[in-house]
Write a structure and sequence with these properties.
Layout: H1 2-9, H2 16-38, E1 53-55, E2 60-62, E3 81-83, E4 91-92, E5 105-107, E6 115-116, E7 129-131, E8 153-155, E9 163-164, E10 177-179, E11 187-188, E12 201-203, E13 211-212, E14 225-227, E15 235-236, E16 249-251, H3 262-266, E17 273-276, E18 282-283, H4 286-296, E19 301-303, E20 311-313, H5 322-373
Parallel strand pairs: 2-3, 3-5, 4-6, 5-7, 7-8, 8-10, 9-11, 10-12, 12-14, 13-15, 14-16, 16-17, 17-19, 18-20
Antiparallel strand pairs: 1-2
Bound molecules: 2-acetamido-2-deoxy-beta-D-glucopyranose (3 copies).
Amino acid sequence: MSVLQLEIRTDCGAMRQVRQVLWLLLLLARGAWSRYAGSWSTSAGGDCVVGCDCRAELKFTVCSGGGFSHLPLALPAPTELLDLSHNRLTLLPPRSFSSVRRLRVLLLSNNSISVVQDGAFSLLEFLQRLDLSRNHISTLRGGFSLGLASLRDLHLAHNLLTSLHTSSFLHLDSLQRLNLTANAIASIQTRSFSPLGSLRQLHLAHNRLPSLAGGVFSMLRSLELLGLQDNLIQHTDDSVFKPLTSLALLDLAHNRLRTVSFKTFLSLHTYSTHILLEGNPWVCDCDLQRVFHKLHSVQRLFLDDYANLSCGEPAELRGHPLGEVDDELCVAETVTVLIITVTVVTTVLAAMVMAERKRKRKKRGRHWTQQGEASDESDYS
Ligand SMILES: *[C@@H]1O[C@H](CO)[C@@H](O)[C@H](O)[C@H]1NC(C)=O
Ligand SMILES: *[C@@H]1O[C@H](CO)[C@@H](O)[C@H](O)[C@H]1NC(C)=O
Ligand SMILES: CC(=O)N[C@H]1CO[C@H](CO)[C@@H](O)[C@@H]1O
């Protein structure tokens, strides 16, 4: 440009035409430059990538809906929040995001990510929030959590996970909130959650869990909220909730529970825990009524939706609120018990009376024989 200007300044008649041509060139060049520059949003000084909006003063880089099918390469290094949601990403290779190592928040929801390679986030030692919801992730391998020691919030809702393994959350020492809502999780290995000693919320709603085995929540000492609603849970181990000494809310609504044992909830050694149980097909018999009666008497447990519990069985009680029928259930049961008791007592009494009569008859018989045989002994009879 300086050469151009120099030449333009040499103003002599013969050069007039040349000058005009040069101006034209200059204008063209400027046009091209501004078009080029337009693709780099210069809103706050730093370079930004096409399709992104960089707000350097906030350290935000927003590339949401930018049509990316690969990770953009040169992102502004000071970025602390990177929003790549609503794109077409499919794969996260190892050591992704190497240009933005100061990230604290990484939003990747609503892409088509199916493969997260080992160590994909391993450079993000400051990352606190990772949103991977609404993707196609079907497995979490051991290397998934490498380097994520600062992560507090992991959002994996609406993916395709079917099982959780011992190594799924290995390195997440600081994790406080884990959202696994709306996957297809049907099995959880016993020690899957054990690295998560800081976890406070575990959202497992809308999955396909058929039961809860003992030990699956061991080590979750800080857990305050456990959302298990809308699964297929039929059975829970008596000891499964025992390790959850901070639990304040246990949501088991809309499962397949037909009955539950008193011990299962009594083993919760907490200060106070609210339990939600509606939408289960309860078998309304006297045993269940007794369990609930005992649960009501435990001061630290609150059955918040007890009024909404309804019977699934027997057929004639289907849909009836449990709270309304349970007294009748036990009245019927009490009558049955009474009838049985009366029957048993009558039988026993009858037997005793019969036995007594028999004994007397025998004695009398013996008396007469004794009288006949030895009259001396009659003093002792
Ligand atoms: C968990 O994810 C689901 C689905 O995206 C969402 O509705 C819910 O609000 C999330 N829960 C929390 C506590 O973030
Ligand atoms: C009970 O069910 C009603 C109607 O579905 C609902 O409005 C209410 O919030 C429920 N109560 C509890 C404690 O869940
Ligand atoms: C998987 C998924 O939820 N995709 C959605 C991403 O967002 C667009 C609109 O922003 C939706 O149309 C997709 O269904």
